[in-house]
Amino acid sequence: MDEPKAPKPKWWSRPVAARPGDRSSDAAEGAEERTEAAAAQAPPEPVDAPVEARAPEEAAPRPLHEPDPYSTPPYGGPGPWAPAPPVQHPVATPAQGTHVPPGIAPAPPQATGMAQAPPQPPGTAQMPLQAPGMAQTPPQAPGMTPPHGTTLPPAAGPVPGQSAPVPMPSHPGMTPPHGTQLPVGPGEPHRPPAAMAQPAPTAQWRGYDPWAVVPSPAAPKTRKTVSRRGAWIAVLLIALVAGCVGGGIGAYAERDNASGGVDVKLPQAPVEKEARAPGSVAGIAAASLPGVVTIHVRGSSEEGTGTGFVLDKQGHILTNNHVVQPAGADGDISVTFNSGQDAKAEIIGRDAGYDLAVVKVDRVSGLTPLPLGNSDSVRVGDPVVAIGAPFDLAGTVTSGIISAKERPITAGGEKEDGSDVSYVDALQTDAPINPGNSGGPLVDRKGRVIGINSAIRAADDGSGLGGGQGGSIGLGFAIPINQGKRVAEELINTGKATHPVIGVTLDMGYTGDGARVNTKGAGSGPPVTSGGPGDKAGIKAGDVITEVDGVPVHSGQELIVKIRSHRPGDRLALTVERGGKTRTAELTLGSASSG
Predict the structure, then answer these.
(1) Is residue 433 domain-resident?
(2) CATH code (residue 575)
(3) What are the TM regions of this chain, as residue ranges (predicted)?
(4) SS3 of residue 300 by DSSP
(5) 438 catalytic, yes or no?
(6) Where are the alpha helices (DSSP H) in 103-202?
(7) Contact between 547 and 572 (Cβ < 8 Å)
(8) CATH number, position 321
(9) Low-confidence ranges of the chain (pLDDT < 70)
(10) What is the C-alpha separation between 209 and 318, in angstroms, rounded?
(11) Fewest C-beta in 10 Å: which of 27, 159, 246, 588?
């Protein structure tokens, strides 16, 4: 009979004699005491069990760690002499309802302290024992993991080809811990653990060895870097788009804030279609504009722009002489009507002394002649309207009043012989007149022409009157329509205009008051024409004429203006001074041709 052997220690430590002061010895003593206490609580062995001869017991080695009720490896670092613990791979216990290998029949739960059922012969159905008052455990489907707390049957025995699992104490009625191999039921074939339906261990724990050298992680792949220039371009584009979007949103929000989020609609009067009063500026302009034209002149060396107005249905148009003068003998003259219609025009006649000219257009229908008024009926302060094309702005209308009458002016004088000088007993107006207004009509409140706009006093160099140069300062002058009508009729009928004369030569350099008769005649002739109006009235060389029909004259220019304001054949009364004595001389005006 073999000698009984001492029980082997259940821990992964070697029995070593305790040394005084050793920590492990103290721990072993505590563990021994706990082991003895556990043994005292174990159930007594049956009395009728055979008694075997026992060898004298040796002192059991003390474990280095206190026992673990869950049969897990000892915690803490092993001693330098202890072998390495087996590698543990974390494997999760299948969840409830997961299929387990067939053959594992869960045992019904059994209360602690209940009597075990006697073994049944093979082929006999075993009835689970149930404590009174306990709920029936529902049957489990084959291959399903029992719920937690279900007692599992003991293993039928070691499985061939597999080492016996380490015995692990478990509490009654508790499911084994996660990762524990389930035992195979009696009479069921063994299935390898690989057939169990459980998740495969991750690559992190596959082949884990706590004492192995962990290789350094592989270097990360180098990312493709974007060039700094491309990054800046992308940032600028994003900023530009964001700025545009933000600006648009801001502008829209600002507009909504300014208007309170509602489109603003301002009140406005309806369109008035009724005509204006005939005596208003608007009514006068509406009636007069169709008869006013813009004249463009182009000559060989110069060109100009002016205004004119229609005299009759035959196409005669009256304007200033200085307007058409640049055309010369073979220049080009075009007329543009207020409707926009253009037509070629030709000169019928012109007179530099009166600064008047007549041109004519052919084959133009629908002409609107302007009615002529009477300049002798004009009074200072009467409202007037001036129409023209200042600076080639056709159809410009300005208004004002008659500022003065019989204002003697001279214009021109660019030629050395003075043949281009015009003498006008003009109407003065404050209606704005500018370059381009020359030749245009000055109409009264009834729309009748009372004058021809001819000259302005400019504020440039103070050199005198001009034919439309400079800008308006409220001093405009117009040829009275009475004089214009007579000259226009003569130019249309004969192509020439006649001037009234008294038959004397004046001293234009005289600085005294009045007009003095020259002591020398023009050229080789006498200063007083023999048999002329002055000779018949007894006027002598050196006499000074101070009045014409009782109106004082202060210079030779004023005497000419006064005489030309009359027609040939009119009778005048002149006040003459000679040798300190004054007398009155009456005469009939003669006639002189402008040609």
Answers:
(1) yes
(2) 2.30.42.10
(3) 231-253
(4) coil
(5) yes
(6) none
(7) no
(8) 2.40.10.120
(9) 1-226, 253-261, 413-419, 460-470, 594-595
(10) 124
(11) 246
Of the listed 288, 375, 399, 438, which one is catalytic? 438
The bridge status of strand 476-480 relative to strand 449-457 is antiparallel
Specify the pLDDT at position 350.
93
Does 438 lie in the same domain as 520? no
332 catalytic? Reply is no
- Amino acid 230: pLDDT: 82
Distance of CA 348 to the CA centre of its chain: 60
Do 301 and 383 fall within a single domain?
yes
Query: Do 438 and 298 lie in a common domain?
Result: yes
pLDDT per position as a tens digit, 198-226: 455 555 555 555 666 556 666 565 555 55
Active site residue 322: yes
How many domains, the chain? 2
pLDDT score recorded for residue 114: 43
Task: Write down the catalytic residue from 65, 296, 316, 322.
Answer: 322
> Encoding tokens for residue 488?
């226009």
Candidates 436, 440, 499, 441; CA nearest to 466 is: 436
Cα–Cα dist 420/325, whole Å? 10
**pTM of the entire predicted model:** 0.56
Whether residues 384 and 513 fall in one domain: no
Helix (H) or strand (E) holding 399: strand 396-411
**What is the pLDDT at residue 29?**
46
Question: Which residue has tokens 């196409």?
Answer: 315
The CA angle 84-88-89, to the nearest 5 degrees, is: 150
State which amino acid sits at residue 386. Answer: A
Same domain, 379 and 524: no
What is the residue type of 237?
Answer: L
Is 324 part of a structural domain of the chain? yes
Structural domain span for residue 572: 498-593
In contact, 432 and 399? CB cutoff 8 Å: no
